[in-house]
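hey m, so remember when u said the tokens were messed up on ur end? i reran from scratch. heres the input so u can diff it against urs
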Amino acid sequence: MTDLFKIYKFNPSEISHIEASRNEPHGHDYEELLVGAEGTLKHFIDFHEKIMEAPFVSFVTKGKIHRVVPGLQNGACTMWVIRFRSEFIPETIFQLYSFYHDNANLCFTRDHCFARLVTLCEMMVGEMTRPSPDLAVVRQLLSTLFTMIESERRKQLPEEVQWQTSHSQTFRNFLAILEENFRRPEGVNFYAEKLFMSARNLNLICQQILQQSISEIIETRKLIEAKNLLVTTDKTVAEIGFELGYNDKAYFTRAFKKKAGQTPTDFREDMRRLMA
């Protein structure tokens, strides 16, 4: 996906198309949120399959292997499929990874809370179908949607259950410290010391939850913010690199290209063409 954000409403006519296609487990390079108002969903993720009846939500983080098979419920199937790139909401993306890394699906009841989720989806569709959609408005609506989903998750899974292992709590604390400090040129030892633990143990926890090392997570967070600044500001590449702790423009450009597959300038030009 090349767009920063997409949303569409899935309906029964598309079920036959999916049934006829070669629907193999797969991963993708964007985040995906499914909001099911009607219908069923057979979801293979985290190496097991779950069948859900609407209403439900399911968040698939970038790179996770999964497969969805939607179905009818009382002859109906209505779901919103929301796809976005990590840099669209960079300030919360790792928190979402930690919330959903081992529990992608959440079932709801048909109450006022879920009705508000539907309203937010419809508002995003409405904004995106305008001649010149305002992505800042969509970003706020999406963040609100995740906030409301997380509120429901806390009701269903109290804190002591949701974060039942010390590893999950440590990872959550690491993400909070990272969010405050990723713009600084700090390394692995800085974060380990903040958590009063060895870099080796923190690295093991990060590998267990995100399958990334501490260094990779720090660099990924910097990259997400760099993309965000390239899209939303007119700052030069050197200014953005300096803001994120890179004192050398050439090094920042090499690091960006290694992870993103293109230079910061090329990325900015591509995004501006897509958003024109």
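this time it looks ok to me. The chain is about 50% helix and 15% strand. if urs says something different then somethings off w ur setup not the seq
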